[in-house]
Amino acid sequence: MSLLQGVLSHVLCWTGLCQVLVWVSTALVALVAVQTARLLVRHAWYTHRLSCFNKPPAHSWLIGHLGQMQSTEEGLLQVDDLVQTYTHSCSWFLGPFYHLVRLFHPDYVKPLLMAPASITVKDELIYGHLRPWLGGSLLLSNGEEWSRRRRLLTPAFHFDILKNYVGKFNTSADTMHEKWRRLVAEGRTNVEMFDHVTLMTMDSLLKCAFSYNSNCQQSTSEYVSAIVELSDLIIDRRYRILHHWDWIYWKSQQGKRFKNALSIVHRFTRDVVQRRRALISQETETDSLSTSTTAKQRKKDFVDIILMSKDEDGKGLTDEEIQAEANTFMFAGHDTTASAICWTLYNLARHTQYQERCRQEVMDLMQGRDGHEIQWEDLSNLPFTTMCIRESLRLHSPVQAVTRRYTQDMPLPGSHTVPIGAICLVSIYGTHHNPAVWTDPHVFNPLRFDPTNTEGRASHAFIPFSSGPRNCIGQKFALAELRVVVALTLLRFRLAPGVDPKLGGISGGVRRLPQLVLRAEGGLWLQLENLEEPQDE
């Protein structure tokens, strides 16, 4: 006891306290010095290994290209310049922290996207900020865990399941178009597309995922508002370098807002999954007791399918895993599909000859029918409309880039090698606008996708849904909704370019805004003309 008292009295005296502070300060300085040295050695190693790639002019060896990437119209024009200058790839350094290879040619993109999933890793630069929201879902998982989830989720996107969703696409589009009719009747023909279409895709996804009629197109929804806020906050965090560190972000105002919105979204999906598991259990018990085989079966939605999916060992996903996949389905599905629909309508509004040809195709398909409803079987009978959708996905791809890392060196053409751990930024935009791949790449020309014109085209020249084992699992879902909504819109409305009211008069052109998906500064405005006869009251 006397020894302890002696030590404490020495430490707590002024001289002893100063000594402790000196020791602590010295230890912290040493730790910072060691970490800085490791960072610089790592930076020098990657700089050497990536010297086989052309390097655009940088601020300095240490800072690199930090601050040069922009999520603006100018940022996309910068990508055009990189493609024009370097043709296939270049290195890119964000300070000593992130070491990237930017790729924008099919021959260089293909070996990376087609690499086995076992050596492919989703990097944290873009995807890490999504983890609190989406957990260890298919989008963010790696290795064997990713393979297991992919196998369990695949049945949810089978054609037989997608057929059931087409009716929901029609219903949600009908609601949006009824809103448009009212606006046109009031003389408000200049309409911003993203606001309306995003709510419509959210509405249809809630029906397809949870069999939930949110009525979000007609009134506010706490859940929908929370998803929109989460998406906005993720974009904001990406461009605040200090907010990349969790211990700083969660103490900020933005971090507190994120946690609040996150609790709303997670509570909603948790309640849905728990109620649905109880319902399925009750239905299974009722079926085992019933001898009737004529009872009408409830149509299965996304949550139903993944709740009942089992792997080869007879194990399914836990409630927490199912919540993560349902959150991912909502996140990845509503914004990307909305962007694709908006830009398709925009491109058709600017090219009336293609718009009229699509409209005639839809009218011919619907001839002799009592109502306006697109059936599953109709989707394969809209060849020119589908060509226009694909060309819009090329010209205005919703997702501008995907990133990958690899657990081994990756050889590329021309004696180039991506070293283990480097971030590969596969530029979908750059590949789709590469003049070495596409003639007049900035021109909207749906005839590029006429079957007679696609022969000889590189397999990875067109990659709006990525490619390879880690491609978008929901691409057939998205294409089905795209065709339904575009076809019904052209049947009911004539489209023309609109004007942003804030600019006044005639706009100088739409400025693209690449965020989580491709949007437009100030919104995407179109003029609507109702083509249907007014109904008698």
Can you walk me through this structure?
With 537 residues, this protein is α+β, with helices and mostly antiparallel strands. It has 18 helices and 12 strands. It has a 5-stranded mixed sheet. A hairpin with a 3-residue loop joins strand 1 (89-94) and strand 2 (98-103). Helix 1 (2-12) crosses helix 2, helix 14 (319-350) packs across helix 16 and helix 15 (352-366) packs across helix 18 (475-492). The longest helix is centred in the middle third of the chain and has 37 residues, at 253-289. The chain is globular, with a radius of gyration of 27 Å. 38% of the residues are buried.
Briefly say what this structure is.
By secondary structure, the protein is of the alpha+beta class.
Label this structure with key terms:
537 residues; alpha+beta; 18 helices; 9% strand
Q: Numbering strands along the chain, what is their spatial order in the largest sheet? A: 1-2-8-5-3
Helix content: 40-55%
Instruction: Give me the oligomer status.
Output: single chain
Low-confidence segments, given as residue ranges, are: none
Percent in strands: 5-15%
Secondary structure category: alpha+beta
Give the SSE map.
Blueprint: H1 2-12, H2 14-49, H3 73-86, E1 89-94, E2 98-103, H4 106-113, E3 120-121, H5 124-127, H6 131-134, H7 143-153, H8 159-185, E4 190-192, H9 193-210, H10 222-238, H11 246-249, H12 253-289, H13 302-308, H14 319-350, H15 352-366, H16 383-395, E5 401-406, E6 410-412, E7 416-418, E8 423-427, H17 428-432, H18 475-492, E9 493-497, E10 512-514, E11 518-520, E12 525-530
